[in-house]
Amino acid sequence: MGTVIAYLRVFLLAIICLIxxxxxxxxxxxxxNSCFFYVVPFAFHNSLRMTFGIKLKIExxxxxxxxxxxVGNHLSYLDIPVMGSLLKANFVSKDDVRGWxxxxxxxxxxxxxxxxxxxxxxAQSIQQMNDAINEGRSLIIFPEGTSTRGKEVLPFKxxxxxxxxxxxxxxxxxIQPFTIGLTKTNGQLVTKDQDYDTYAWxxxxxxxxxxxxxxxxxxxxxxxxxxxPISLKGYENRKILAVDCFxxxxxxxxxxxxxxxxxxxxxx
Length: 268
Prior knowledge:
Blueprint: H1 2-31, H2 39-51, E1 54-59, E2 68-72, H3 79-84, E3 90-94, H4 103-109, E4 113-115, H5 119-134, E5 139-141, H6 158-166, E6 174-185, E7 188-189, H7 193-197, H8 207-216, E8 220-226, E9 230-231, H9 238-267
Parallel strand pairs: 1-8, 2-5, 2-6, 3-4, 3-5
Antiparallel strand pairs: 6-7, 6-8, 6-9
Helix pairs in contact: 1-2, 1-4, 1-8, 6-9
């Protein structure tokens, strides 16, 4: 039965992507600088979440009344539809995502900013981020620089924060840390590494087998915690800012793990 469901989910995923590509291309052409631009990405990301049975519990309040850079931990490519279904913002992603079949094209059409580690392209990437900030766009960034299993938060790379602090509009910009906490996979509380790996995609894991395994299962449940926004007016040092954002994200993960432990004790 799981195999049949997986085929149906993968088929539905393909249909959603093929329908979205021309619509998003038109959306980019007509509403590139409008608030209406995010209608199509919202629908797309929510469709993906529902297709693979990813449920969310939201803690805290999302800042919506001003331009914001959302920064948080990173577990999986699935974080894209999760956060994209909640936020009117553009993603900042590694340059290699651009080459992914279908998803790379959709990322480009959604105005994703691709960051290259190649020295010759690094300056261009920084300029693209500054341009986005100057245009008033909000951004979503995973400053760990890689994905993890979701049991810990890696130190945030301060180079991202240096871009914000040096931007001419920094006084009008705020940063809101968030925490992605995985609580259940396949209907069960996460306790073992393989439970986390149902959702998390990290290390040298292959993409296609991971998608297939997820498609065969019963989805995942996450707690997304939005912490108090941080004003850049009080900061000059990028490393201090990065650590403060990291601390909030780490505290959110600790709270989620504490909740899991309490639920396990109740079930014992």
